[in-house]
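Reading a protein record of the kind used here takes little practice once its layout is understood. An example of such a record is reproduced below.
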Amino acid sequence: MSRDSIRDIPLPADIEAESFRIIDSEVPQPRPYDGGEWEIVRRMIHTTADFEMLDLVCFHPQSVANGVAALSRGGLVVTDTEMARKGIPVRRMDPLGCEVRCLMNDPRVAEAAKRNGTTRAFAAVDFALDELHPSVWVVGNAPTALIRLVDRVREGAPVPDLVVGMPVGFVNAAESKDYLMDSSIPHIAVKGRKGGSALAACVVNALAEMALRKSR
C-alpha cells in the first residue's frame, strides 16, 4: 500500500464524522432501523466495525425514549465494569447532570459477595437496587449481573428506565440477554455471544448525544 492511499484527517471529530458517513453509505435506505434506533446502531457499528449489528440489535419499544428521558433528568447510570464506566465520558454526562458509577471495587460489594458466596457482579446489582436506585443499567460483561437484575425486577424491584444488556462470551452471555429480552424491562440488547463493555458504553453515548441536543 502506498502512503497516497491514506487520508489525512487529523481531528477526532472529523474522523468520527467521516466514519459515520462511510457507515451511512454502506447501509443505504431503507434501513432496518430509523430515527434514534439508527443513531444507536450506527454508533455500535462505528465502535466495532461490525455490520452484523444490523441483524443483532434488539430494542424494546420504549427503550430509546426512556433512555433519553432518564439522561435528560440527570439519572444515575450504573455499569458492570470500570471499562464501561470510563467509556462514557464526563463531557457528555456532566452537562446532563448524570453520574456514572461502577460498584465492582466497592468494599461493601466485595464483602457481601464473600459473605453470601456470590460473584461481585451479583452483589453489585443487589447493592445498587437497594441503595442507589439507578435509572440506567449498562451490562457489557457479566451475565451474572444481568440475570440477577432481571430476577430482582421479577421479584418486585423497581423497573429501571433502561437496561443496556450486552454481556459478551460463551457462558450464559446469549442466555442472559434472551432472559432480558423475554422480560418486560425496557432494554437495548444484542442477540447471541457478541457484546462487551465498549459496545454497551457506546449505546449510552448515543443516547446522551440525543439528550444533549434536546436540551439545547
